[in-house]
Amino acid sequence: MTTAQRTATSTWTVDKAHSSVEFAVKHMMVSTVHGRFRDFQGTIYIDEEQPQNSQVEAWADVASIDTGIADRDAHLRSDDFFNAERFPRITFRSKRVEFDGSRKFRLVGDLTIRDVTREVVLDGEFDGRIVYPWGNERAGFSAEASISRKEFGVRWNQALEAGGVIVGDSVKIILQVEAVKQA
């Protein structure tokens, strides 16, 4: 598809079946626990002529957290961590996109967890754009960021007798996104 055939701004929705919203955090200072949110949505508004003006809006349902351990997931949903009942969604709204002249970009935006909003930077890569065999157009993106969970009010922890804590402060966010262009 040539640039002339594209509209100035296109709208894309995240395909949940082919995307993931994951995280990783240190446990007891020696291992890393991985988890994901099973329920999420996102919309990407791509400015075809000036991609730096593109925007992203997304959310994840806190109750859909899944680390593979039911008791741990219940604890993460509690007020010790996310308080899914009071703060049911984690949201992200972009402010700007910065490009380095290649497929790499920095997506700067506001992340809100537990009603605390902080600016975060997602380091990303454009993974490609294709026309799907069944007719619609798709694009792929990957992105990562590291945040301090304490800065978002997620403070529960317990000191270890030998030193250190049960849960690390730094949380790595890992996104794999396949988006579908809307007609």
Write the layout of secondary structure elements.
Blueprint: E1 9-14, E2 20-27, E3 31-37, E4 40-47, E5 55-61, E6 65-66, H1 70-77, E7 89-99, E8 104-113, E9 116-131, E10 137-148, E11 167-181
Question: How does this structure look, described?
Answer:
By secondary structure, this protein is mostly beta strands. It has one domain: Beta Barrel (Lipocalin), CATH 2.40.128.110. Helix content is 4%, strand content 56%. The chain is built from one helix and eleven strands; from the N terminus they run E-E-E-E-E-E-H-E-E-E-E-E. An eight-stranded antiparallel barrel has the order 1-4-5-7-8-9-10-11. A hairpin with a 4-residue loop joins strand 7 and strand 8. Residues 1-6 have low confidence and may be disordered.
What structural category characterises the helix and strand content? mainly beta
Fraction of residues in H or I helices: under 10%
CATH architecture: Beta Barrel
H and E string: EEEEEEHEEEEE
Please, what is the average pLDDT? 93
Which spans have pLDDT < 50 for at least 5 consecutive residues?
A: 1-6
- CATH-assigned homologous superfamily: Lipid/polyisoprenoid-binding, YceI-like
Sequence of strands across the biggest β-sheet: 1-4-5-7-8-9-10-11
